[in-house]
């Protein structure tokens, strides 16, 4: 019997839930930020041994925003600039 793979994503309510689809964005729970999965800053932090225990994943950008996260200035500079100017 084949077992279906699931991923744990963060929902609009900020709570984790199992998903049959992987997230398209990664985030940092403690920093309340999200970005691309190939973000240079996140990958460097992971390589140094940090970040992983606070790592979260989102299905899409709208979900990350509603959950209270902000865009990463490194991998999403345009989105970050819009977020910053709206504050």
UniProtKB/TrEMBL annotation:
InterPro entries: Ada-like_dom_sf (IPR035451). It comes from the Bacteria. This is Metal-binding protein.
